UniProtKB/TrEMBL annotation:
<dbReference type="GO" id="GO:0016020">
    <property type="term" value="C:membrane"/>
</dbReference>
<feature type="domain" description="C2">
    <location>
        <begin position="1"/>
        <end position="132"/>
    </location>
</feature>
<protein>
    <recommendedName>
        <fullName>C2 domain-containing protein</fullName>
    </recommendedName>
</protein>
<dbReference type="GO" id="GO:0005509">
    <property type="term" value="F:calcium ion binding"/>
</dbReference>
<keyword id="KW-0479">Metal-binding</keyword>
<dbReference type="InterPro" id="IPR000008">
    <property type="entry name" value="C2_dom"/>
</dbReference>
<dbReference type="InterPro" id="IPR035892">
    <property type="entry name" value="C2_domain_sf"/>
</dbReference>
<keyword id="KW-0106">Calcium</keyword>
<dbReference type="Pfam" id="PF00168">
    <property type="entry name" value="C2"/>
</dbReference>
Length: 199
């Protein structure tokens, strides 16, 4: 029993995801500008699914597997927002990110376009960084513009002072620690990337 609990509490690594900017998004409304936010869903699937690019509904609850950005306007929005996901120690297979852009509305946020960051070949025992422009599709599978996302992965072994036993109950403390670590570990890299893409 104890061994199982320890394995579940262990962290495999941290995945920092920076949503930089999108270009040529489809227009969401007849009148006015898009009110775009991006939702990133971490998929801990044994294999990435083939249907990653279409996500019809916005998941309201923010949790460790689903996070969203603030709203930025127009068809070429710049978010430059960083989020962090933890990969549980029990996870063996690859990970993927489902990326969905929504037009925020008081009543119901409408899907604008989506795509996937396929990380199935990524080595989760080493640290790496990947910058990618991802093609987006709308609900009818038509061209939906492009989005630029930076992923930086930090394996647990690199997180020196972070204890191996990971207390899933101390969610708030954990989130703060992870955010601090990711900021420190990826801050320089992200600013280099930003200047590279002109932010
Ligand atoms: Ca709108």
């Amino acid at each position: 029993m104890l061994a199982t609990a320890a394995a579940q509490d262990r962290l495999k690594g941290l995945l920092s995801v920076t949503v930089l900017q999108a270009t040529d998004l489809p227009k969401a409304d007849w009148i006015g500008e898009n009110d775009n936010f991006v939702e990133i869903d971490l998929l801990l699937a044994p294999k990435p699914t083939t249907d990653l690019h279409i996500k019809r509904t916005h998941t309201v609850a923010q949790d460790e597997r689903s996070q969203r950005t603030q709203v930025q306007y127009g068809r070429n929005p710049v978010w430059n927002e960083k989020m962090a996901f933890s990969i549980p120690g029990t996870h063996k297979g690859p990970v993927s990110l489902q990326i969905s852009v929504f037009d925020e509305d008081i009543h119901r946020s409408e899907f604008v376009a989506g795509g996937a960051f396929d990380l199935s070949t990524a080595n989760l025992d080493k640290d790496w960084m990947e910058v990618k422009w991802i093609d987006l599709k709308d609900l009818k599978d038509r061209d939906g513009g492009k989005i630029c996302v930076v992923c930086h992965y930090i394996p647990e072994s690199m997180v020196g002072y972070f204890q191996k036993k990971y207390n899933a109950k101390a969610a708030e403390v954990k989130t703060k620690i992870i955010q601090g670590l990711v900021t420190r570990a990826t801050g320089v890299a992200t600013s280099q990337i930003n200047s590279m893409v002109g932010l």
